[in-house]
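Annex B. Sample input.
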Amino acid sequence: MFSKILFAAALALAAGPALADAGHAHGEARAYGEPGDAKKPARTIAITMRETDGKMMFIPSKIEVRQGEQIKFVLRNNGEIDHEIVLATLAENLKHGAEMQKNPDMEHDDPNARRLSPKKTGEMIWKFTKVGEFDFSCLIPGHREAGMTGTIVVTAKTGAF
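Annex B, continued. Sample output.
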């Protein structure tokens, strides 16, 4: 009898919304940088999420930053449905997107991701520590495929900021 109760409890827990696990502890450096520090200066970049004419998009879809620069992303969902932004390498976002296809109710609790309801705003602070080209996408099933993706180009630090 006890084993049946344990099994039922485990099944109930498994049925709840899954949390995204990008394989990173909070605050841990990633290939594309690390969580920012809200107490330090940051350049602000506004990103709008929306859908129109069967397409979904981020505006802007290309962002350029310098290595070592901290960015405060001010996010706004101007769309009629939920959208999210997940900052990662392209390979990581494609892998994460495949997992989202299997589990569309996955919730994110990561410093590199924010999900917004329609007409809502949010923020994300990120420090770009490595040079390269990185991806940001909406990984809600079908959204990336409908065009909701962008690129962040991090160039080498030159001179003082």
